[in-house]
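#struct-pred

JT: dropping the chains for the assembly here, can someone run the whole complex?
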Amino acid sequence: MTFDFAAREIGRSQPRTQSRRLLAGRGRYSDDENRPGQLHACFLRSPYPHAAIRSVDRDAAAAHPGVAGVFVWEDLAPICKPWRTVSKAFPGLQSPTQHPLAAGRVSFQGEPVALVLATSRAVAEDAAELIEIDYEPLPAMADYKRWREEDVPLVHPTMNNNLAWCCDIVEGDVDAAFAEAALIVEDEIVFTRHTGVPLEPRTVLAETDPATGEFSVHISHQMPHQLQLHLATFLDLPMSSVKVITGDVGGGFGIKMHVYADEFAVCAAAHMLKRPIKYVADRHESMLADVHAREHVVRARMAVDGAGNITAFDIHDLHGIGAYSVFPRSSTMETVMALRPIGAAYRYSAYRAHADVILQNKSITGQYRSVGHPIATTVTERLVDRAARALGKDPLVFRRSNFVRSEDMPLTNPAGLRMLDLSHEMCLDCLIDLIGYEHLKEFVEVGSDQHRLLGLGFAAFVEMTASGTEAYGRAGVQVAAVDSVTLMLEPDGSLKASASLCEIGQGIDQGLRQIIADGIGIRSSKIVLTLGETANSTHGGGAWASRGAAIGGEAAYGAAKRLRVEILAVAAALLQCSVETLDIVDGEVVDRSGTMRISLRELAETVYFRGYELPPELQPQLGVTHSYRREQDAAIPTNGIQASLVEVDAETGLVRCLKHWVVEDCGRIINPLLVDEQIRGGVVQGIGAALFEACVYDQDAQFQTGTLADYLLPMAGEMPDIVIAHVETPYSGSVLGAKGAGEAGTCAAAAAVLNAVNDALARRDAAVSETPITPQLILQALGSIDREIAS
Amino acid sequence: MKPAPFAYFAPESLDEVLALLTENGDEAQILAGGQSLIPMLALRMASPTVLIDINRIPELQRLKETERGLEVAACVRHSELLRYAQASVRWSLLAQAIREVAHSGIRNRGTICGSVALADPAAEAPAYAVALGAEILLKSRRGERRVAAEDFFLGIYETAREPDELIVAASMPAPTVGWHFAFEEITRRRGDYAIAGLCAGMRIAEGRIAEARLVFFGVADRPTRALHAEALLADGNPKDPELRAAAAVAARNEIEVMDSAEHSASYKRHLVHVLSRRVLSLLAVDGGAE
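RK: done, full complex below.
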């Protein structure tokens, strides 16, 4: 199978068909679903980071008018199994069993302790205030940097220490490389927790059909099939009687792909009571109990030889993951993805990384857009900039001379990543043109003075996308890396379709329809695609790891080609000509001269209503399903380079990002508009990481940033223009050649901003190595204020 | 995030409001724009048993120029005062300051008197009220009184208002000839509460500073004047850079800054200095043009 490059829709910018509906307020999110007699859930969450629960007095709450039930773990235990994160990829992982409601002890602030069900959310909240819990506060583990010290409290008293997991990755002779190095650069970089903050909070409506026993869950989620599997497992139901529907999803970013205690408590209660129950996380709960991510301290060294070639990396990562390793994927996936992409854009020969993954009495961490990569990219690009500066070289010249070149690939680098089909040098050429490098350098020089420091920073990156079957399969974790697309021709020649993919706002619905359209020869406007419903699609992955175009796209194209074969076979039989002489264009079967011979409507009507006209033994399959798993390459690498121009106010410490540029290569682009906006959104999250966002806990592990007044999201007013260009190097291992695009913006934006700020600060011989870069950090670096600790 | 139950009253006369306040005192909260109160109710940080909605009372809606100046009634929105202030150079401080109050949606609903009543130390309205020498008009069944803004703010979320009193208006005296104002605040994102801010005014007469007023907000527990710096400036030449530098140092030394979880005292003190220098040099340009 090959791709026909005379494509009509692939490669064309088209707005999402949902946009009109969503912008008109006609979206149907999970909270728009209501059922007669539904109950509303509210959770009483632990105010303590760590405490034993001595007793729970819920009599007053249960007696409150409008309350249908108040549940603690013991009530749910008979019908809901607890879970424990285990993975062969992380041997020795220490993460205790997790429960939908706290089982005798809470280990982070916000952990759900009791579930209140009532006729409205307000009544449920009133009743929750009446529950009296006798807590015995226990010492909380907050500062993971002190994890080795003896007096540090245990996150879980059942464990001997707080080490969840540790790993070493070693390849090549690192010590020799450093011994022989002409230059060694090093840094310690501090990364603060973030969370994804989707606009639509996590929402679930669970119900049992009393007639059929079918258990259905309407939920804001990225992977309905995976959730269906876990619901069936933990509630002990056959998968065939569990249905998951996502409807419209207002953003995921990796936040909505885990097993959450609160969601499972709601599902268990709905299953037990046989009544519909709705739960909508409010913003405070979202900040507190959605997965957090990216709390690391990385000590890194890089060796450069006398010729200016990078030779080795030596990395030590300390990763704080919260109270448990998230189920099912494990929080340690981020550890590995923060380590392995270090140095991936460059040629080098020796690599050593050690990570200590530490449990904390804080919220659980998990996958968040561009998992681990922003850490790896920031570490790498800081070291690369430091080396270029130390050698007196232009940062782009130094990068170019060390890039993995086209002729070097394919290669498996010392960190174990397979590099192929990358375009570092071309992206760099494109970036130099795009930013007007020489002019921009002059602008930065001329525009800076004593108080206004301008800086220009770069970050090259490699992002591993579209994880294949090995990522979780070999780990023994039930996560599907296969995706499927089903197509059904309707009697009027239009197409209904479904897939295991999930639309979470990224626009994959539009992308898949463009692929299907070209695969058959119809217009995408004739296709209605339903995503996010387990009942009508083959078990598959959903929305994670930028897989939609690279994996879902292949399934869609395969399905389209199969349906096309079926259609042409019918056409050839009806027209009494050979299949080879026919083509499908704009929904019509045409001959070699382009003359219309039969429309898809006529053809479909014949098959469905006048089958007797068909020749014997022709059984047209106008409904086809095609599944795709990639057979090679554990993930598809993508690459690019970003640049950021910043202004540092040396008096106030405020940093303003003036402009940001991205050149990236996601292989074949299905829809340039959607790819560009994915990158822009990703860049905004990266700038947020660099300058604003932080999930802050105090020294007692009390959460400080529970509202959007405290957790500073990047706002439109602070965002620069983001200029985007592309290099298209198709992935050689698939028909369409598409690679993942959704996370590239986030991958390197923070690194580019940090480098830009340090370029600016270098005028005053100062530097920062921590994100978010707060005004206080800037002024401390400049020596303008003391390093006193705020209260 | 649902409020605890409360009784809701939407009276149509001021007398009814005052009667309800007398009856319920501390248990009652006034609802005007709701931009701070509603989130506090939703988070159950505030759980009043009675909510008195004053939006239906005609005399509380008016923005009027009186002999004493501008009378900003209880329900006047930030955006309304902003539009008014932008039309006259006399009210330039209001125009500069209100532009920085949150975002347009919030300015369209939120009220000046509500902000004064809440007394968030980082809010703009209490600060410009002090800078302009405003008076707060309070009414209760016991009578009516006027409190100078400077005496009204007592601490974080603490004012001189008695539980049975309603802030019916803030009265801003019109600046007399020779007054010049400048404003600046430091925020990480546009529209956030200020980390530190300064409302400053100078009355220039015959090229000298006849009177100066420096009101810092976001740094102490209430809008705070830098009296030493003001005294230092008095009778000086606004264009004298050494005088301005000395005043900035004086302000930094005298303001008793309060740190927060996010911002150290050292950073706030530094910002007092930076703001003083910046704002005074703006005033030098503006005031020197006389």
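JT: nice. Chain B has a mean pLDDT of 95. The CA atoms of residues 27 and 48 of chain B lie 5 Å apart.
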